[in-house]
Write a structure and sequence with these properties.
The chain is mostly helical and 449 residues long. It has 2 domains: 173 residues, Cytochrome Bc1 Complex, Chain D, domain 2 (Orthogonal Bundle), CATH 1.10.760; 184 residues, Cytochrome Bc1 Complex, Chain D, domain 2, CATH 1.10.760. The chain has a two-stranded antiparallel sheet. α1 packs parallel to α8, α2 packs across α6 and α8 packs across α11. The longest helix has 36 residues. It starts with 5 loop residues before the first helix and ends with a helix.
């Protein structure tokens, strides 16, 4: 056996201790700097402002007005969100009961559409993570399909959204309380705001109409959903217990539990300082500092109930269906309010699990997270139809270095990544159908029969 002299052992131990202390000081320095930054920015003066609750802690999740969260509603909503049998108002017999809410909000795509544009009724195929969804041109004309004029927003963190959709059309409170005079005027669907509900609940009432979904005796009795509605809505009388408001309240309750609370960033906030790498911590400091992301992406869900114009291209620019340069939905919030100051402004989205998103911005004009960071760093609008006078004051060159772009991208991609969103997906639905789609092409794509 080899022996080591006491002097050599002492020297080795000294090197180890110095190296360890240096590493600890590096970690501690970034942690302390980041914590001081967050405490300064937090309206509440503590880190809890940025913490997401456990999804099982229904009392800790913001509920919609008139729609207190219960486990029975969440259970029903989870099934309905993925249940293709709800698509009973399809335009053709061939597409009947072949699509679901999850068709355009795929868990593996951060609850967005896997393709550049969401297509429910009138679409076929799934591909991988929803990327293969296309129009069923053998049975549909373009004007008949259910396709949105903007990329579907992520459902993550919607519990913290007051006014939903890119234009913030839905919800009687928040920003919409100031524009009650336009409810139902330019967009008849927003008449629902007069019910006095929050954005998610109002949107989902109208959404069942727009997306050709409703309950019937087949869904309620043959498939067995009636007992789930009875448990979830014992105070609803008669047919109202199974109607659009009940469906919306169940869907909304479930959606409010979609919280990316297993992301490393959330672990770091809860005290696990090694949950983030050094690069991710540098990226977080940029997010809450030099890059200014926090000015718009705020709160636990890092989203915002504000609207900004950043001059990105529209869905029509990449060949979107049922849209064009003249589509008034390209006006963003201005399409809803018709007020000059709102033109081309779009809702600030959440930024968790963005590395799962194959497309970015309302027009799906970017296809990588680094492209998004570079776009903000350059601060130059790409859409020449958006007047410079409408561009947000927050959109300007950020002067980040290539290394800083790398750091910020890493924080967004990995630090804000919850790896287990499948916990929000049921193993099966009562119909036994394949989901999120049950058309033949989708079933072949998913290996599901």
């Amino acid at each position: 056996m080899f022996s080591t002299s006491p002097k050599l052992l002492i020297a080795i131990l000294a090197v180890v201790l110095v190296t360890s202390c240096t590493q600890d000081e590096t970690v501690s320095s970034l942690d302390n700097q980041l914590e001081r930054t967050l405490l300064r920015l937090s309206p509440e003066g503590d880190l809890s402002y940025y913490m997401l609750p456990d999804s099982r802690n229904l009392g800790g999740i913001p509920a919609g007005i008139g729609n207190p969260l219960t486990s029975e509603k969440v259970e029903l909503g989870k099934l309905l969100f993925h249940e293709t049998a709800l698509g009973r108002d399809a335009l053709t017999e061939g597409s009947l009961r072949t699509f679901s809410c999850a068709t355009c909000h795929v868990a593996d795509a951060a609850f967005t559409a896997g393709a550049a544009q969401g297509i429910a009724d009138g679409g076929i195929g799934f591909g991988e993570k929803g990327t293969g969804r296309i129009m069923d041109d053998a049975n549909f004309d373009e004007e008949d399909i259910d396709a949105q004029g903007a990329r579907p927003l992520s459902m993550l963190g919607v519990a913290y959204v007051t006014n939903s959709m890119w234009a913030g059309r839905f919800g009687a409170h928040g920003a919409n309380a100031e524009v009650e005079d336009v409810w139902g005027v330019f967009d008849p669907a927003t008449e629902v705001n007069h019910l006095g509900l929050d954005g998610l609940e109002a949107q989902n009432i109208e959404g069942t109409v727009t997306h050709r979904m409703s309950t019937d005796d087949y869904l309620l009795d043959t498939l067995g959903y009636r007992r789930f509605f009875d448990r979830a809505f014992p105070d609803f009388q008669g047919d109202a217990r199974y109607g659009r408001i009940a469906v919306s309240f169940a869907l909304s309750a479930y959606l409010r539990t979609l919280l990316p609370n297993q992301a490393p960033w959330q672990d770091w906030l809860r005290g696990e300082k090694l949950a983030l790498t050094e690069q991710q911590k540098r990226g977080a400091l940029l997010f809450f500092g030099k890059a200014g992301c926090y000015r718009c992406h705020d709160g636990p869900a890092l989203n915002g109930n504000v609207f900004h114009a950043i001059g990105v291209n529209d869905l029509c620019d990449i060949g979107g269906l049922r849209t064009s340069i003249d589509d008034t939905r390209n006006l963003g919030r201005g399409d809803f309010t018709r007020r000059a100051e709102d033109y081309y402004k779009f809702k600030v989205p959440q930024v968790y699990n963005t590395k799962d998103m194959p497309f970015y911005f309302h027009g799906s004009s970017k296809t990588s997270l680094r492209e998004v960071v570079e776009y903000f760093n350059d601060g130059v609008p790409e859409n020449n139809r958006v007047p410079l006078a409408n561009i947000s004051d927050y959109f300007h060159p950020l002067n980040m270095t290539e290394a800083e772009i790398d750091d910020l991208t890493e924080f967004l991609a990995e630090g804000l990544y919850d790896p287990n969103l499948q916990r929000y997906v049921p193993e099966s639905v009562l119909s036994g159908n394949c989901f999120p789609n049950s058309d033949q092409q989708s079933k072949e794509d998913m290996g599901c029969e």
